[in-house]
Design a protein that fits this description.
Blueprint (H helix, E strand, L loop, with lengths): L1 H19 L3 E2 H8 L3 H13 L3 E6 L11 E5 L5 E8 L2 E8 L4 E8 L7 H12 L9 E8 L2 E3 L4 E5 L4 E4 L1 H9 L3 E5 H12 L8 E8 L13 E9 L2 E2 L27 H4 L6 H22 L3 E6 L5 H14 L10 E4 L6 H14 L3 H5 L4
Parallel strand pairs: 4-7, 7-11, 12-15, 15-16
Antiparallel strand pairs: 1-3, 2-3, 4-5, 5-6, 8-9, 9-10, 12-13, 13-14
Length: 372
């Protein structure tokens, strides 16, 4: 039994290394994982036999000549992963292959709550998998949603917009559909998307700020305010969840207890933030000052912004840059780089898929199947 567990762990590590470093050789895998070359060869050959991994063109021979190393990559046709953003007013979903490329996507304006959550989920999966072309088998599903989420159990602990309290999404879907599921807060899901997209690079310490402007076109009639901001924290390459999974739940220190809004702006005015220049400027400065405090205090070198704020990047970026520099007491220029999401409107959905994709390579049940 101990030998088999070791094989599973080694296989998982080899698989994830190939995924993180597409085009890597067997020799370099052995060096990175400090495994014997013969052990890596046996594992890789098994993965190739199972069509999980494929060989691509040979690399360059070493300086002393000899046999050229054969490069390896994940076989993207082996399977697919779905990522879904479940929002109170819409759902947005993507289906990606094992390289992270989008196969298809769906978007629909609907009203989502706990009562109809699973009904919408089934419709989404059905829509994603409808295609005239052959789609790789679905290996797992990631869900990103608003509220406080315990991602370890896949439970939405609290979500006022979704009218949810202790909703065990993961266990319900896995029991009914017999497929691996991951559930994550929407801003944290966006962090996963950037880490997966930039895998193999040193993107280890950053913030992702997800901004939504509800405006007057929102379907849900009981939204209490028109601006929603969530923050995801990544330190040393890992999501920071906090003691009760609520890290990143934002509220301005200038907020008024009489307001439900996260900002000092009056609730009724937040719905006009995109229409009224004065309200937008107040919002931009208030949020930027808070982000500048975090960036400078934590000495972060990257900050990502996504959601509806992307439409206003030309107005918002200068304000944020000024706040970061203005709140930095030293003469040297701050090194933090401001980015906008790599995936636009698909940021949450893609990030949820990225989370599931990342977890697939350490899913022992899935790896066990390779030995059947």
């Amino acid at each position: 039994m101990a030998v088999k567990i070791t094989k599973v762990i080694n296989t998982s590590n080899v698989l994830k290394t190939i995924w993180n470093h597409q085009g890597i050789s067997r020799i370099d895998i052995a060096k990175k994982l400090k495994l014997d070359k013969s052990t890596v060869t046996v594992i890789v050959n098994n993965l190739i036999d199972k069509k999980y991994v494929i060989e691509i063109e040979e690399g360059e021979a070493g300086p002393k000549g000899g046999r050229k190393p054969v490069k390896l990559k994940i076989n993207k046709l082996f399977g697919s992963v779905a990522g879904i953003e479940m929002h109170p007013n819409f759902y947005h979903a993507v289906l990606i292959d094992l390289e992270g490329d989008v196969i298809t996507s769906v978007y629909r304006k609907v009203s989502i709550n706990q009562e109809n959550f699973f009904e919408h989920y089934k419709q989404i999966i059905s829509d994603l998998c409808k295609s005239e072309e052959e789609i790789p088998p679905l290996l797992g599903v990631g869900i990103g949603t608003t509220g406080i989420v315990d991602s370890s159990s896949g439970t939405i602990l609290q979500s006022i917009p979704l009218k949810v309290d202790n909703f065990p999404v993961q266990s319900i879907i896995e029991e009914r559909e017999k497929i691996p599921v991951s559930v994550e807060n929407d801003a944290n899901a966006c962090c996963w998307g950037e880490m997966v997209f930039h895998r193999g690079h040193s993107l280890k310490n950053f913030l992702f700020v997800l901004v939504e402007f509800h405006g007057s076109g929102a379907i849900s009639g009981d939204l209490s305010h028109g601006i929603a901001v969530g923050i995801g924290f990544v330190f040393n390459g890992k999501l920071h969840y906090g003691q009760s999974h609520s890290a990143g739940e934002f509220r301005s220190i200038g907020g008024n207890n009489k307001n439900l809004s996260q900002f000092s702006i009056k609730d009724e005015d937040t719905f006009r933030v995109e229409e009224d220049e004065k309200i937008f400027d107040q919002f931009a400065l208030e949020l930027s000052d808070h982000l500048a405090f975090l960036v400078n205090t934590l000495n972060l070198n990257h900050i990502f912004l996504g959601g509806d704020i992307e439409k206003h990047r030309d107005r918002f970026t200068p304000v944020l840059k000024d706040s970061i520099q203005r709140n930095w007491p030293y003469k040297d220029v701050d090194k933090c780089t401001i980015h906008y999401s790599s995936f636009g409107k698909s940021a949450v959905a893609y990030g949820a898929a990225g989370l599931m994709l990342s977890r697939l390579f350490v899913n022992r049940e899935l790896i066990h199947k390779l030995y059947k």
